[in-house]
């Protein structure tokens, strides 16, 4: 255990698996009290239990990030459990590669509700608590697909581009008020969300990555630890691209 996040209390959405789980593990290892907030109850509870066994402070709370009431409950329960809320990691998201014509309005609304409205609601409802600390931090997880376009992921690209500007606008709004808001743009990262890609699809993705390999959740988590820590006290509205060089050419 190290202590780069000692005294921090963090809600991490989508932390039952994948990148969110990786962030929760590193945060707990650095001394933060961690709320695993996810729809996946069994997996989320298992992650919290594992982190506690490793000596960390962690609980699971059920959260649908697209529900304002669920956010209000999770923020209130976090403060009741740990006494404050200093840090929010908006990581939960869903994927869709159906392209323009095959994306139904229902699919579009669902994806935007989770990926973009979820980040808006999280910041809106956590903000009064973050402001109270005088030293709050938000880390929004966008995607390389919030910076570059590919074919098919139409709604996903729109949501992640929206996340980028939502972060910047709120970073500006709160710059003088002691809450920093920064964004991470992960590239191809090995998580359960990528399990349904075929071997050919995987190879096609890797062919675009100058480093030639996929990242691991920990690669993204190290960036999140930095942005959430007081080491990043002079950073707000910044864009941390962790993509093995995919965005370079
Ligand atoms: N894996 C990648 O290659 C990659 C690349 C770029 C960006 N990202 C971003 O990283 C983040 C995590 O992705 P991942 O690959 O770990 O995905 P994942 O599907 O493995 O994990 C996502 C988690 O979010 C949860 N979730 C989904 N909808 C939710 C909701 N409405 N409320 C609460 N929780 C919900 C899921 O239950 C799951 O535990 C996402 O924001 C994603 O867009 C991932």
Structure description:
By secondary structure, the chain is α/β, with parallel strands linked by helices. It has a single domain (9-241), classed as Rossmann fold (3-Layer(aba) Sandwich), CATH 3.40.50.720. It is 46% helix and 16% strand. It contains 8 helices and 7 strands, in the order βαβαβαβααβαβααβ. It has a 7-stranded parallel β-sheet with strand order 3-2-1-4-5-6-7, with helices on both faces. Helix 5 runs parallel beside helix 6 (154-174). It is globular and about 50 Å long. The structure holds nicotinamide-adenine-dinucleotide. Nicotinamide-adenine-dinucleotide binds at residues 13-14, 16-20, 38-40, 63-66, 91-94, 114, 141, 143-144, 186, 188-189, 191-194.
User: In sequence order, what are the helices and strands, one letter per element?
Assistant: EHEHEHEHHEHEHHE
Principal-axis shape: globular
Largest sheet: 7 strands, parallel
| Termini separation | 38 Å
Level-2 CATH architecture = 3-Layer(aba) Sandwich
Class, according to the CATH hierarchy? Alpha Beta
Number of domains: 1
Q: Which residues sit in consecutive blocks of at least 5 with pLDDT less than 50? A: none
Radius of gyration: 17 Å
At CATH level 3, the topology is Rossmann fold
The main sheet orders its strands as 3-2-1-4-5-6-7
**Which whole number gives the mean pLDDT?**
98
Total count of strands: 7
Number of contiguous helices: 8
What fraction, in percent, of the residue positions are helical?
Answer: 40-55%
What is the CATH H-level superfamily? NAD(P)-binding Rossmann-like Domain
Small-molecule binders here are: nicotinamide-adenine-dinucleotide
Structural class: alpha/beta
Beta-strand proportion: 15-25%
